[in-house]
Design a protein that fits this description.
The chain has 6 helices and 2 strands, in the order αβαβαααα. The longest helix is centred in the first third of the chain and has 27 residues. The radius of gyration is 18 Å and the shape is globular. It has 2 domains: about 60 residues, Reverse transcriptase/Diguanylate cyclase domain (Alpha-Beta Plaits); about 40 residues, no CATH class. With about 130 residues, it is mostly helical. The chain has a two-stranded parallel ribbon. It holds the Pfam family IMS. It is found in: Nucleus. This is DNA polymerase eta. GO terms for molecular function: metal ion binding; transferase activity. Its main location: nucleus.
Length: about 130
């Protein structure tokens, strides 16, 4: 059996995606003389995050097993949607500096502090293929 778990299977898909993106980045460089960075992850937020962290002209893959470590040391202000007032409020009210610090709080504690309607997206996103 090639994949021991669903995470193994998903990480193999990321590896395939990384090969395709590497080929695209080479083509962009050949045809435009411009370099580009890329992030490959299981969701757009993580892919965009690592693409911005590792520039210029780099490609970063985030397998499932690395997500927790990546987020644990990530400064709150670097996380999308937490760079403004909400991020400042989290830092001031709760004394958190990293996403890892924030993860030590329960959902109930955060709802108590900020309300139940803050930050939860009920929209269902369906994956699309190219």
């Amino acid at each position: 059996m090639l994949c021991q778990s669903e995470a193994d299977y998903q990480d193999k898909l990321l590896a395939c995606g990384a090969i395709i993106v590497a080929q695209l980045r080479v083509k962009v460089l050949e045809e435009t003389q411009f370099t580009c960075s890329a992030g490959i992850a299981h969701n757009k937020m993580l892919a965009k995050l690592v693409s911005g962290m590792y520039k210029p002209a780099q490609q970063t893959v985030v397998p499932s097993s690395s997500v927790q470590d990546l987020l644990a040391s990530l400064p709150v202000k670097k996380m999308k949607q937490l760079g403004g007032k909400l991020g400042s409020s989290l830092q001031d009210d709760l004394g958190v500096e990293t996403i890892g610090d924030l993860l030590s709080f329960t959902e109930e504690k955060l709802q108590e502090q900020y309300g139940v309607n803050t930050g939860f997206d009920h929209i269902i996103y369906l994956p699309t293929t190219i």
